[in-house]
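Work Package 3 (structural annotation) set out to generate three-dimensional models for the target panel prioritized at the project kickoff. During this period the team completed the workflow that converts sequence records into discrete structure tokens, so that structures can be stored uniformly alongside our sequence database. As a representative example, we reproduce one entry of 226 residues exactly as it appears in the project archive.
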Amino acid sequence: MRSLPLPLALTARLTPVVVLACAGWALTSGSDATPTAKDKETPQTENQSASDPSAPSSTAVSKTYTAAPAPCGSLAKKTITSLVPGAKTAGKEIPSTDTDKRRTCSWNALKGFDYRWLDVSFEIMASDAAAEKSYKARTEEKSGGGAVPGLGDTAYSVVNLTTEDKQETREGVVLVRAANALVAITYNGSDFESKSAPSTEEINKGAIKAAKEAVAALEDGRSKES
């Protein structure tokens, strides 16, 4: 059987890493029966702090999700075997510098001449507003898609076809925002015998199916059972 090189588009992945930072402060006070000159300085009141825009805020941001779930356990085994025939259902988790904030799992396999690749990624952000901002930026980068109703707080799906060395690859991306979390699905495929790609409907439905299960796993806070 002839050698079947994979398209370059399928052999490299860039997993962005989101670095989150937070600031804290210390409040000090003192009392003395015979105050020194330093002690006699007028302390800043709470109202003064509130009126100073440079003063840190003591209001903590409430977050619905504080950690990303295990991505390789977020989909049912039957879903994996259906979307990526021949793949090991255990999947392969991509290394992350902060597994509490971002985790990604990948499955890929070549069965006969059909190739499929599936990524499931969870990203936990500092607030709903931060997640919404990131969601808008990412969906604007991938224009041409449409909304997916009934999934998370808001969801978007887009499918694109690329051709390299006469080999077609069709890729679907579904991005979901659920409170302060983002769930991203990437699903693509190629036929190396015919050099064609799966239909838009097949790729889009597969990506949305994976997204629904991943969001359910996020909401449940546990891995899906097969």
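The first helix runs from residue 46 to 51.
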